[in-house]
Amino acid sequence: MLKPLTNILTKIIVDGFYKAHNGIFILLLLIVIAPGGEFIKFHQSLMLYFIAKPLGMIIIFALSLLYTFKCWHFVSSTLTGLHQQFLFYSMNSFSKFDQVFSWGIIHALMSLPIVLYMLCSVIMAISHHYFLSAFIILIFSIGLLLLSAIFYYWLINKLIDGRKPSMILKLMNGFKKPFFSLYLYHVFDKFKLKYLLIKLLSFLLITGVFLMFADVKTDIRVAAIAMLAIAIAHAMLIFEEREFDGTFLMFAKTLPKSRFQLFLSQLFMYSFLLLPEGIWLLFNLPILMAAGLFLFCISIVMLFVSSLHLIGCNQDRYMQVVSGLFFLIFLIILFKLIWALVLINFLVSYAIFHFNYYKFKVNEMHDG
Questions:
Q1: Could you tell me which of 109, 122, 108, 90 has the C-alpha nearest to residue 5?
Q2: Ranges of the chain with pLDDT below 70
Q3: Is residue 153 a contact partner of residue 99, using CB atoms and an 8 Å limit?
Q4: Cα(98)–Cα(156) distance, integer angstroms
Q5: Which residues, 6 or more positions from 253, have their beta carbon under 8 angstroms from its beta carbon?
Q6: Structural domain spans, the chain
Q7: Which of 223, 252, 258, 342 has the greatest number of CB atoms lying within 10 Å of its CB?
Q8: Can you tell me the distance from the alpha carbon of 44 to that of 42, in angstroms, rounded to the nearest whole number?
Q9: Cβ(214)–Cβ(227) below 8 Å
């Protein structure tokens, strides 16, 4: 029997999540039964491919991350609603363990399709003697569940009023703050835990990809896939930046700055945000290759950023765009068109930004 805390969160969070995204789950059901009467054998074969091939496993992990980021954003949006403000105060009466445990159950319920798929994958991997694959899938699933529970725990326990400036802001108080750095300060002040979790996830992704493809690690496509995974890991942080921009930096449209200067400002900001990954590349790859791969990652990020200028801050549509771009870029990587893609990404990003910056859909800021 669910504890009172878990029961309340289930009614508020889980029920709301499935009601808000019932269209997506209907689509998933149609995809599952699409092969007809042989759908069980079809999906068994597909799952076996994902288990046996590192590339397939990376695709499943990336899709799991996208789904998890969607859950994170939904919970964040729900908890900031006026009708849920009581949770910020009432949950403090429960122990830390009870809160984390309840949030773990809540995330597992929201991620039920992923949980069931991963469980079936582990069982199939063991039955076909892919013990390492079973272990990796199990550790990834448990780690993602634990990270989500900790993130929700931190989110519900942070102060909502009368908050003092963080230590980082106090230390940086005497320094000049360029326009492009404003969101960085916001991240380090408000989203420290989220930023650290994403950086941990980036480290696990980049090291995991190189370990899985150790026999072909000199193939540039391996490193490019790792950069694509890192860009995906930052997808929700990019979405938060657009919301921050639409809420606090709307005055930027009145500044005597050209659209090209504003685009460069965003480029500098995301370059600093991805600096830890850039340092990792410099220490592990030749300088020219590291610089090229860093630009490749930035170009994908800028493509995600510019897409929000085109569609507005609608989280559902944004995740659909990110998913579509993931598969498209992944296919292009397989054809080794990586360096051409860097130029194309930057050109397309700037074109979208240039023609849509002053049309930014503020009215869609909180849709989805």
A1: 90
A2: 1-3, 22-40, 42-43, 81-93, 158-177, 179-180, 212-218, 248-255, 360-368
A3: yes
A4: 13
A5: 357, 358
A6: 1-163, 165-368
A7: 223
A8: 5
A9: no
